[in-house]
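Researcher: Please translate sequence to structure tokens.
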Amino acid sequence: MAQWVRHAGEAMFLTLRSQEPTCNMDGVDTTGELYWGEAGFCPERWSFWIKRAFELTQEVSENLRPLVLSAAHRMVDISMLGAARLM
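Model: Translation complete:
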């Protein structure tokens, strides 16, 4: 997850803000064991994964904690920057 956010976080956020359907992308049109909300890239799913990343910082090893925490903060930063650009 951390690498996805690091390398593609901004693109993912822009995709969830667009009105274009994402269901033609493999795996995006489904949900899993953890997330049961709307399928596809959507603000609800983005927010879920921010929350889940912060939760994971308490569940992962001490070695991984900084990486997961960095990803969570990066997602928050992307959200705030993206929201500011839309205003």
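Researcher: Any highlights?
Model: The helical segments are 2-17, 43-56, 65-86.
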